[in-house]
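pls ignore typos typing on phone
MTE + seq
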Amino acid sequence: MALTRRPPIVGRYMQEEVALASRNSGMPLEALRYDVTPAGLHYLLIHFDIPPGDAAGWRLGIAGLVERPRELGLDAIRALPAKTLRVTLECAGNGRGQMSPRYPSMPWLEEGVSTAEWTGTPLAGLLEAAGVRPGAKEIVFRGTDRGIDRGTEHDYARSLTVAEAMRPDVLVVYAMNGQPLLPQHGAPLRLVVPGWYGMASVKWLAGIEAVAQPFDGVQQLGSYHFRAQSGDPGVPCTHIRVNSLMAPPGIPDFYTRRRLVQPGRVRLIGRAWSGGGVQVGRVEVAVDGAWHEARLDPQAGPWAWRGWSYEWDAVPGEHVLACRATDANGVVQPMEPVADVSGFGNNSVQRVQVTVGA
Ligand SMILES: Nc1nc2c(c(=O)[nH]1)N[C@H]1C(S)=C(S)[C@@H](COP(=O)(O)O)O[C@H]1N2
Ligand SMILES: [Mo]
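k done
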């Protein structure tokens, strides 16, 4: 596949990046206060256009290397065993806008993450009913949204290995936070792959196909690889890296977003998460570079972020706050972004500039 990359950018944002940032909204960081992000505050990443999502006429095709190919309507899918999971999704490009040089794409700073309660039916049940043939290597998921990237026209599509697709918590989802999916989140049907970066959770899901060869679509082979340098074969983006954020304390300055905080006891709160089913083991908070242990809230299921808090004695002056999570395997967030030509997987430590008034 001939892939022409856009040249990296140093300096000011381009109009195209601003246009993408206006379409693909982030979660306002004050929404870190919610265990479950209200649907209207959940971050959005839409590569092409939001396609029409007529629920009554929707068909999900299951084809390829299966014994019993089939087409299912929404009613048939809703009649199958239902499961609700609280899942934190994060865009693989989250943090890209903080890197320099940066890749010309959605310039997330740090707000491309949210948590929702997704209701659907396990994909494994659909695949078992269709009977995946032994020769199948991967399952390809195709959305109805179509566009052009790197010069290639395609429907948005991604694959999982058969083993990954058969995990009991991979869901074909029709409801978010107890309500039918909104158009921007994939109505009427989407995949949710817990523990993976968001690109795997294909929205507007219309086709499931079992294939004998690794899928080589644009969104699989051309994009979503960690690459230290352009031209590297790269490592596929899969599980979410350990990460954490702080809800902005005090009140903001409108334009700079700097925070103004009253002196005295300030309760700092935030969320930490990781992928692949690995839990968060520890969160620390830094005040002007000195690290302190934060208190962890109970874990709400294997796939959701975990709340944390820290009581700060704020003294007048200028301060830099930071938070840093370590996962249960001892993997800790890096202090600075790890070089990546596409700006993927930036889980470096967040800094929050705070002025404490007299
Ligand atoms: N069909 C389709 N599915 C998609 C996308 C897309 O553009 N089209 N974007 C992916 C990406 S990169 C992310 S991060 C998540 C975002 O899901 P959300 O917008 O519901 O938060 O959807 C994924 N699924
Ligand atoms: Mo994404």
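The chain has a mean pLDDT of 96. The chain has two domains: 46-88+115-234, 243-356. more later
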